[in-house]
Amino acid sequence: MSATPSIESNLEKYPQEVTLTDGRRLELRVVGAVDRNAILAFARGLPEQDLLFLRVDITRPEAVDRWLANVAEGTTLSLIAYDGDAMAGYATVDRTPARWTRRVGELRLTVGQGYRGQGLGRHLSARIFDIAKSLGLKKLTANMTPDQRGAQAAFQRLGFVAEALLTDFVEDRDGGLHDLVMMTFDVDGLTDHADHSLQL
Ligand SMILES: CC(C)(COP(=O)(O)OP(=O)(O)OC[C@H]1O[C@@H](n2cnc3c(N)ncnc32)[C@H](O)[C@@H]1OP(=O)(O)O)[C@@H](O)C(=O)NCCC(=O)NCCS
């Protein structure tokens, strides 16, 4: 088994070009303060259905500022895909500072509507997954609602399994309640939870 590269050598790969299945070439960059306006413009262009379920409401400048502050502090690491000057999608890994869960990281992924179904979700999820492993995280989670099938497919491809279904855990922006699917991945293949994934 090959050793996991250090986070420094992993991040040296960026900026990096990726080609979508329709031939468009995008650049993946590590997120920093310079990306603030592009993130806001991207968020404001997302369809209502996506905004309903955004875990962090990045249409709000203060939420973007908190994201960038977490990046500066090192608790969050994110990649952005750029199509020229416009943001096409992002992937992020958040570490929880609490001692009990310090080895757990949450992955999040959003691709702009005009770029879906062209492999960008796959590129971003695979790379943020490698970054999460380089950070020494041992358990990765990704949260979504049961009808976010695209996200489930993208994470299943990486070996994630649905580990928990939490009833009425999500309140959308309109106050509607939805179940939450927690998908997880054990980096070392070691686990003390039941070895059956949920059938959703
Ligand atoms: C989920 C999401 C990131 C996928 O991005 P994408 O660029 O369209 O994904 P890709 O083209 O790389 O496809 C990845 C896989 O998901 C599958 N997939 C994508 N959308 C799908 C859908 N709506 N239903 C079923 N499968 C889907 C693809 O077939 C592909 O599977 P494969 O690799 O086995 O062929 C994107 O749809 C999105 O941003 N959705 C809204 C936000 C969201 O759900 N975020 C997840 C929260 S963690």
Can you describe what's shown?
- It is built from 6 helices and 8 strands, in the order H-E-E-H-H-H-E-E-E-H-E-H-E-E.
- The protein is an alpha+beta fold and 200 residues long.
- The chain has a single domain (7-186), classed as Gcn5-related N-acetyltransferase (GNAT) (Aminopeptidase, 3-Layer(aba) Sandwich).
- It has an 8-stranded mixed β-sheet, with helices on both faces.
- A hairpin with a 5-residue loop joins strand 1 and strand 2.
- It is globular.
- The two termini are 32 Å apart.
- The structure holds coenzyme A.
- Residues 50, 108-111, 116-122, 142, 144, 148-151, 153-154, 157 line the site of coenzyme A.
- Coenzyme A is lined by residues 50, 108-111, 116-122, 142, 144, 148-151, 153-154, 157.
CATH topology: Aminopeptidase
Strand elements, count: 8
Mean model confidence by pLDDT: 90
Distance between the termini: 32 Å
